[in-house]
Write a structure and sequence with these properties.
Elements lengths: L4 E2 L4 E2 L12 E5 L3 H7 L4 H22 L3 E8 L7 H25 L2 E5 L7 H13 L7 E8 L1 H17 L10 H5 L12 E4 L18 E4 L9 H12 L9
Parallel strand pairs: 3-4, 3-7, 4-6, 5-6, 7-8
Antiparallel strand pairs: 1-2
The protein binds farnesyl diphosphate (FPP).
Length: 251
C-alpha cells in the first residue's frame, strides 16, 4: 500500500486522503438503484433495497473519516410520479430504516434529521421520524439529514412564503430581507453548506437538490451505480475534492 504524508502536521495519510482536510459536510444523490436492479433482471425495488444498504455503509465510512454532516436525497418531490409499487417499496424501506435507527442511533452515536414536507407521509412514519429527532437531542456524533419529499424549489418557495407571512404581520419590511433571513427559513437552517456533493449513477445534474446550499459546493460525479458505491469510491471522491482549489468567488 502506498503511504503518503500530507499537511503541516505530517499526519499519516489514510491511503491518498488527507485526514486534516476532510469535508465537513458531504451530500449524496443516491442514483442508479433502478439500473443496478434491471441489469440483474431484478425488480427496481431490489435496487432501492441494495441502495439503502449502500447508504448505511456510506454513513459508517463517512462517520469514521470524521465527516460532521451527511445529507442524502432519499425521495424527491418529483419521485411521486414513479409507479405506485416502487413508491410503496421506498416507503417500506424508510419505515424499516427508521425502526432500526431508533435502536441503533445511540449505539452508533448518530443524529438523524429530515428535510422536506412530511405532511403526505403516514402518521406511523411521521411518529417514527419525530422519535428519531427526539433521540438526536441526546446523541452527539455525525448528523445525517435524510431528504424526504424534498425539492430545492419547494424549499425556497416555502422560505419565501414564511418571509411573506412575516411581512404581512408587519414583523418585517420586504426591503430589509437578507440572505441570512432566507437561509434561516430553509430546512437546513444552522447547518453548514455541503463542501462536497457526490452523484453516482453517471448523470451529471443536481436534480432539484439543495439549490441554495450547493452554491459553492464541489461536485464529484461517478459512473458507479449507487448500490455498488462503497468505501473505495467514497475515498476516491474525497481525494478528488482535496485536489480542488476552492475560491468562493474570490481569486
Ligand atoms: C435514485 O435511483 C434513487 C431513489 C429515487 C431512491 C433512493 C432511496 C433509497 C436509497 C432507499 C431508501 C433510503 C433510505 C435513507 C433508507 P433511481 O431509481 O433513479 O435509479 P435509476 O436512475 O437507475 O433508475
Amino acid at each position: 500500500m502506498q503511504v503518503a504524508w500530507f499537511g503541516k502536521k505530517k499526519q499519516k495519510a489514510d491511503d491518498d486522503i488527507d485526514l486534516n482536510h476532510i469535508p465537513r459536510h458531504v451530500a449524496i444523490i443516491m442514483d442508479g438503484n433502478g439500473r443496478w436492479a434491471q441489469r440483474r433482471g431484478l425488480p427496481r425495488q431490489a435496487g432501492h433495497s441494495a441502495g439503502s444498504e449502500a447508504f448505511r455503509r456510506a454513513a459508517d465510512t463517512l462517520a469514521r473519516l470524521g465527516v460532521e454532516v451527511l445529507t442524502v436525497y432519499a425521495f424527491s418531490t418529483e419521485n411521486w410520479k414513479r409507479p405506485a409499487e416502487e413508491v410503496s417499496a421506498i416507503m417500506r424501506l424508510l419505515d424499516k430504516y427508521l425502526h432500526e435507527s431508533v435502536r441503533e442511533m445511540q449505539e452508533k452515536n448518530i443524529r438523524l434529521y429530515f428535510f422536506g414536507d412530511l405532511t403526505p407521509f403516514s402518521p406511523e412514519l411521521r411518529k417514527l421520524i419525530a422519535e428519531t429527532e427526539k433521540i438526536s437531542e441526546t446523541t452527539t456524533g455525525m448528523r445525517v439529514n435524510v431528504c424526504l419529499n424534498y425539492g430545492g424549489r419547494d424549499e425556497l418557495t416555502r422560505a419565501c412564503r414564511l418571509l411573506a407571512e412575516d411581512c404581512e404581520k408587519g414583523k418585517l419590511h420586504a426591503s430589509d430581507i437578507t440572505g441570512e433571513m432566507v437561509e434561516s427559513r430553509l430546512y437546513s437552517a444552522g447547518v453548514p453548506d455541503p463542501d462536497l456533493l457526490i452523484r453516482p449513477g453517471g448523470e451529471q445534474r443536481f436534480s432539484n437538490f439543495l439549490l441554495w446550499q450547493l452554491a459553492y459546493t464541489e461536485f464529484v460525479f461517478s459512473d458507479v451505480l449507487w448500490p455498488d458505491f462503497g468505501e473505495k469510491e467514497i475515498r476516491a471522491a474525497i481525494a478528488e475534492y482535496q485536489h480542488r482549489k476552492r475560491r468562493f468567488g474570490g481569486v
